[in-house]
Amino acid sequence: MLVLGNLQTLSEVRNLRCSDDILQKIPNLKQLGISYDVSPTVEWSEYQLEALVNLHQLETLKLLFKYSSHASESVNPPKLAFPENLKRLTLAGCGIPWSSMTVVGALPNLEVLKLRKNACKGSEWEPVEEQFCQLKHLLLEEVDLVQWGANEAHFPRLQHLIIRSCYKLKEIPSCIGEIPTLEMIEMVDCHPSAVTCAEQIHEEQESMGNEDLKVRIDLRRYFKNKFYSKIFH
């Protein structure tokens, strides 16, 4: 068996079957990007995505699921598992339930999490304490989140929060501002009510002497290209 022991990066791979014989050939991979074509007849068991947990050196993983014109988003989501060494994870289009975020939150070294374009399905995300212990950067983009029950204990080391094009989310928990490491909240094309929450978080923290937190607001697309941008220092 040919082993590519020096290979550390694979990107823009399509429909990779993560069988043992494939993964054993790339044991030292550190960066991996895969896109999957989702059809109405897709059988996720063929791709063995749970076997990604065996890439023990992997630090960066991007998984993108692209729906064909004939596939509906009601297709059952794949089952995912991740190696403990993972530091940066991007998910897009996989449609897993928010409850599955406990699998992600348990990753002990995860620092960057990007959830894009229906990466998760459902209206409510209730994070669990003692998870996301090392997470510094969180992006929520084009997800159908309505209620986010987060507090400072759920993301104890978060530095940068970006919420982009999450039109159904109308409220950000005020206790997010109590995360001692938080440096920046970015609100891009979000519901005005959520933006107001971000402004109130900034005002509250400023009144308590926290001058480190910055809030950036950009609503140009939400207001159909009318310029609306603010940065609070």
UniProtKB/TrEMBL annotation:
| SUPFAM superfamilies documented for this protein | L domain-like (SSF52058)
Q: InterPro entries this protein is in?
A: LRR_dom_sf
Record-given protein name: Uncharacterized protein
